[in-house]
Amino acid sequence: MKSLCLFLSLLLSTLAVAIQPSSTAVPNLTIGQKKAKAAGLLKIALVPVTDAGNLADTNPLSAGRGAVAQNFQMGTYDVKASEYCQFLNAVASKSDHFALYNEKMNSNPNVASISRTAEADGSFTYSTKMAASELPIAYASWFAAARFCNWMHNGQLIGNEDATTTETGAYTLNGAMKDENETATVAKSDYCNLSDGAKFFLPTEDQWYKAAYYKRTRTGDYWNYPTKSDTTSSNQKGYHNAANYFIASNSDDSKIFPLYWNYQFSNGGKAPFLTTVGTFRQSAGPYGTFDMGGDLFQWVCNPGYAGTRVIRGGSWKKQQNDELKRTTCITANPAIGYEFVGFRIAAPAQ
């Protein structure tokens, strides 16, 4: 009996040790990571883009764009400062090897939205600036936007910038920060390739173009502007066919503030010059997206010439004439974040 009691005592002791939580099971989170964890998972608003197998645009100036073989989902809005801030707290709190944060996100008053604070333990905490959480995020490079997609694909894990969070997933980046072979283990031509089973990604130019301009008539007919219109958009709030973009020729009319948004930029108004996503509620695109024209240009996945990437949609800051129009295509350096470029994400059809 004594031997049996001793055996049972040892067995219970072993079980007690076995079920005790490991000291490494719960990592020490930084203040920023705790903020990301407390916020819960992001739920990016998406709209279905249907009409699979639609015809390409027949306009010769648009080079046959817009044909998409399969249905997919498009972000209702540009990625917002609050969403990008949560991403930063999740993966760039201990270090930011891949420049996901651009200091100009805080210092450029034209588009400022996120500040970074150095904590006593050497980590960083990110916060949206006052009244900026619903602004679209500017100054994210193409590579930063692709890493956001990887993070979303990987389940929004909290940890360092590595293969489990930002470097693989929708895109195989492995440390790449620019379009040169020396910056990663894959060739530059592979950076835009979408992995099989990608859950979130930057839209191709055809996907972006279709979501912005397609008339949904089963023909190759597309709107001229991403506000379901063939006539030039205004920047008058509260009206149809309007967007946040700079119209220099409207300087007289723009004195009717705040109806004409460019009043702020052209007449010394108070920054920031972005509008919160969805401000132009009466100017949705053909599938229900907002701000595909104006506010910020948006990165798409397609490479341009000489290592550039395509950006689409126009912005608050005038770059050239009629940049919202479907026939206007512009490219930019994917390694650089700009004050007039943001991004929105896409996903497979449900």
What does this structure look like?
The chain has 7 helices and 9 strands. The protein is an alpha+beta fold and 350 residues long. The protein has a single domain (36-350), classed as paralog of FGE (formylglycine-generating enzyme), CATH 3.90.1580.10. A hairpin with a 5-residue loop joins strand 5 and strand 6. Helix 2 crosses helix 3.
Helix/strand layout:
Layout: H1 2-19, H2 31-39, E1 46-49, E2 72-75, H3 81-91, H4 104-107, E3 114-118, E4 124-128, H5 142-153, H6 205-213, H7 262-266, E5 297-303, E6 309-312, E7 330-332, E8 341-342, E9 346-348
Parallel strand pairs: 5-8
Antiparallel strand pairs: 1-2, 2-9, 3-4, 5-6, 6-7
CATH fold description: paralog of FGE (formylglycine-generating enzyme)
Tell me the count of domains. 1
Which stretches are low in confidence, meaning pLDDT under 50 for 5 or more residues running?
1-26, 250-261
Structural class: alpha+beta
Order of helices and strands: HHEEHHEEHHHEEEEE
Strand order of the largest sheet: 7-6-5-8
Helicity level: 10-25%
Gross CATH architecture: Alpha-Beta Complex
Termini Cα gap: 64 Å
Give the full name of the CATH homologous superfamily: paralog of FGE (formylglycine-generating enzyme)
* Radius of gyration based on Cα positions: 24 Å
How many extended strands?
9
What is the helix tally?
7
